[in-house]
Amino acid sequence: xxxxxxxxxxxxxxxxxxxxxxxxxxxxxxxxxxxxxxxxxxxxxxxxxxxxxxxxxxxxxxxxxxxxxxxxxxxxxxxxxxxxxxxxxxxxxxxxxxxxxxxxxxxxxxxxxxxxxxxxxxxxxxxxxxxxxxxxxxxxxxxxxxxxxxxxxxxxxxxxxxxxxxxxxxxxxxxxxxxxxxxxxxxxxxxxxxxxxxxxxxxxxxxxxxxxxxxxxxxxxxxxxxxxxxxxxxxxxxxxxxxxxxxxxxxxxxxxxxxxxxxxxxxxxxxxxxxxxxxxxxxxxxxxxxxxxxxxxxxxxxxxxxxxxxxxxxxxxxxxxxxxxxxxxxxxxxxxxxxxxxxxxxxxxxxxxxxxxxxxxxxxxxxxxxxxxxxxxxxxxxxxxxxxxxxxxxxxxxxxxxxxxxxxxxxxxxxxxxxxxxxxxxxxxxxxxxxxxxxxxxxxxxxxxxxxxxxxxxxxxxxxxxxxxxxxxxxxxxxxxxxxxxxxxxxxxxxxxxxxxxxxxxxxxxxxxxxxxxxxxxxxxxxxxxxxxxxxxxxxxxxxxxxxxxxxxxxxxxxxxxxxxxxxxxxxxxxxxxxxxxxxxxxxxxxxxxxxxxxxxxxxxxxxxxxxxxxxxxxxxxxxxxxxxxxxxxxxxxxxxxxxxxxxxxxxxxxxxxxxxxxxxxxxxxxxxxxxxxxxxxxxxxxxxxxxxxxxxx
Amino acid sequence: xxxxxxxxxxxxxxxxxxxxxxxxxxxxxxxxxxxxxxxxxxxxxxxxxxxxxxxxxxxxxxxxxxxxxxxxxxxxxxxxxxxxxxxxxxxxxxxxxxxxxxxxxxxxxxxxxxxxxxxxxxxxxxxxxxxxxxxxxxxxxxxxxxxxxxxxxxxxxxxxxxxxxxxxxxxxxxxxxxxxxxxxxxxxxxxxxxxxxxxxxxxxxxxxxxxxxxxxxxxxxxxxxxxxxxxxxxxxxxxxxxxxxxxxxxxxxxxxxxxxxxxxxxxxxxxxxxxxxxxxxxxxxxxxxxxxxxxxxxxxxxxxxxxxxxxxxxxxxxxxxxxxxxxxxxxxxxxxxxxxxxxxxxxxxxxxxxxxxxxxxxxxxxxxxxxxxxxxxxxxxxxxxxxxxxxxxxxxxxxxxxxxxxxxxxxxxxxxxxxxxxxxxxxxxxxxxxxxxxxxxxxxxxxxxxxxxxxxxxxxxxxxxxxxxxxxxxxxxxxxxxxxxxxxxxxxxxxxxxxxxxxxxxxxxxxxxxxxxxxxxxxxxxxxxxxxxxxxxxxxxxxxxxxxxxxxxxxxxxxxxxxxxxxxxxxxxxxxxxxxxxxxxxxxxxxxxxxxxxxxxxxxxxxxxxxxxxxxxxxxxxxxxxxxxxxxxxxxxxxxxxxxxxxxxxxxxxxxxxxxxxxxxxxxxxxxxxxxxxxxxxxxxxxxxxxxxxxxxx
Lengths: 698, 698
Prior knowledge:
The structure is a homodimer. The first copy, chain A, is α/β, with parallel strands linked by helices. The model of chain A is unreliable at 1-11 (pLDDT under 50).
């Protein structure tokens, strides 16, 4: 087991027993964030939104170090480099923010280096003040200026560096000369090496010694709408639906639905989401309120997809033709809206695939095709695809379906229950579609446990429904806002919905228009993506007994509404104001940088969002503050305490203390707030303040 | 950007756009633990100690899954396979414990699969009870038995499996026949598929469908002493040191120190640690109590290494010869002790390297060699090596030094201040030494910030000094015990020291023998590795004014002690009892599985450790409970509340409630404890109970 000692070591360099990829760098950067599954899956980022990079960085001994986060664009070019700051002193945790400017496959890494200028500045300041080693320290400072001017780090053989500009070189060499000028006092000579000019040069062109880089880690950058979007959900068949003279229902159509696009667009929504528009099966069709026996006039659930009229690639004949669909898409685009289609990968027993590809389903021991079950519950109107039978055949069929709708102008898919299909299917599928159609966005409708929800995001879904609808108390709301903004932002982008056609929580059933207003304010301000299900304007709040969804659910029947009365509760107006505030304020359009502020009452909630000028599309700071009364029945009077230091906004300091000027985006009223602020919110007048901070200097 | 739809999809398989290593598996296992730096560095484990493996596992839909942690030995053979259990329901976090049985480069991975038997059992039980699909479920069960008997998972083409044994096949096929026996009742037929025999077969030979495996991640397994060791530190020169007739000091020797080995061994210590034994420099030698002017009789600090008599590869002439050293090692081995040597990589100005290799140091602008500094402090007696100058030359020289001591029987090195040398040096060096000498253990003396301490462990140090000496209050002690046992066990192995020659905390300076006893109990019971600095027996507790180390420090002078009086405070006896209890109880010899129990008083602390029979060298459960009074001045009467469910021990349930039988390892007294227990600890009688739980059934 022993090895003879080498008498002349220098002549026999040993083999390094550590594999190159596993070697720690000279100045270590460890525990990098955001890194998912050892960097095998890219972390999420969005064009025009900054995101945090973190690393644990430290070195041997006392010398100073430099840490930079480096963003690399899809072409492999260094796009941005930012100094990382120690954000947890004692724990050596460093952070910087980077911002990609376009979609694509980006990367980041962390550069670390020894900072001889910082080391020298620190030591020289102390020693010259103590009259110790004065000449030595000044001479070493002068030599450092010379090396910096020549771009020559130590030790020899280090990574080459670009020498500073001619102007900077001159500044450095002059400083060196002054430091050697024994006619001057030591303090004067030292000052030459510590001047703001010299410090600035070392800041923007540091002399990086022992410069090492970490591996790169992938970042998938998506277009802005993946992060920032306002959804409006409709069942097209309800639009224009009516009874004929004999009392029989006549379906609504895509063309009728298109007539509401101007109204929806005017409210500021930019995604129009259509529940499935495909032919609906007849076998075991569900009746009104999910009854097992459908009446002859019942249109069936649009999620029971497929009949003789076609499957996922067809349009229900009642709704119109592909020409009608194309016209719908064109009108949506005219109103700056994108069309989102439901992708519900399941079949009615009447779906053409059942006949053409029985092998895509599960065959029972008795030769029958298995319907959906969660014993003892049976869903005989639905045949689930078995993705492990002929996976390649199913994969291509689904791809054909999606590509067909993309050809017809669909740019967003709302995927129904993705968590009941294999994740390996989705990962491949989303990458595949995004390879040819990088603009296409997929929203995951997975109301399930956190691990599945996060992983669906991590493997490629662009947006995710969330637990927002079930977060009702102050602390759980604020914790959740922070969670989606800081803990899981690299894994999934949240989309907040107060209700959907499947979800009507107990909270929404009492409290009337106030709770609908409140939940819209919270969803629209706490998450850059949010959405409502049409009819929200009418405070449709009655549950089907025993179920947390609406009675007389639109899934099983026509629900025409009188849109002329859509503002009867003022909600149309509120939705418009909310989307308008979102449009004007970059702080609402991003996920990161949320701060919670204290209030005096558990029913009062306060948070703020902020974009620094450097990362703002306007080039200016943007700060918004939301104060809401969670009680839809009672006026609450209390106070909100702003942590002004964490607000991000410019604060005016005067004889009256620190003040900021606010304007309420919901009614235009102006306020001046300080640290402690009186709040009165009466749900019958207003459920919340949605403040923006006005620049104090203008 | 668009792609034409493929009309005949099955005939044109698309290229999978996801790189193979980045593909999510069919049933995902994510967030594996222990994984360090994306698996580039191995996690720590120890022969004969079990360690936890964790993963987040989930799947689509409702079907059941199986999760196994798999341990792979250095030859690549599957050594152990353990079912992982969901330890955080709702969060899908699974855990199992694995145990390697010898040192080497091991690996682990996680296997996931669909569990058709569990799915069928669940569904069949519900449906047959509800009289639904009875024949269908029984027939599908019978087919499942047949597939299991043949080892044929679905879908076709799945990973091949070993068919069960002939006996098991017979059991399965008989169950299939019974399930098809329409003469019997459905419940009877169902029972045939759910019998304990059938369940046992599916447990040990499961039919694994859709079986996938994660990547493997590295585990470095070290020998047991890396984890479990009891250190005793000495300055050999103090042993036999005396004044001659003229009052001049005569140094002690290795031979004299060897005479104390029987006493030290009798106390149960198994590592004898020698502070540096090399020649000591004269230039700027430090005098008594760290004074700058050494007197002619002052022996200097053994950390000021190197003189004309030699450097790190030499023995101080006062201490003896290599023959004496070899004899010391031999005697230590006779007493079952290993010798640990200090490795302090720094030089006195008189070190031979300074003359022979001035390029290994830093040369100042004035041509002088830089001494150690932390401005404004100067350490002129020490020249630090500059590891960036001729790194290969220094590397080989240090390697030669260490290999020489290994040749002379040193198996452990206590590395002085490793955090002032590059981590890249250590990572390569430790891997290199362990490649030829895997038995050699390195202890990192890095009293610095957590990131550096953990990373030194992660890149190869086998043991680490810790913050134990500075954790004095109940909550901070218990938090720290849990931290080292559960949060950082895969990164570093703790070694708890109440004092060292450099450390005498304020807490130790009052409280007399009681605090010395208490801290020994805590160190010896809470950490599998612990150590004391010789003289601990004498309660040497006076600080040098202004410094948290002993006055008249042995670093700067001879400190002969009268070992015949070493038990004057009873500490020799206590140390012996502690090491003896450690020797008898596997629970003390491992790091994991610590539980904290409540007490009624902030001065009372209670924790337990446990080894389950499966992982115990004795083949039997072992549980120990420590109850300590942290107040060295006052008796405390209170209570300890045991969480019996978390204790691990077998609990007897009788008319008096749940009871366990305890014996106090420190005095042999027996106790019977239940959930709530009276505690009285008087520091003048005993500072703690060190209980072991007696098996109730024997």
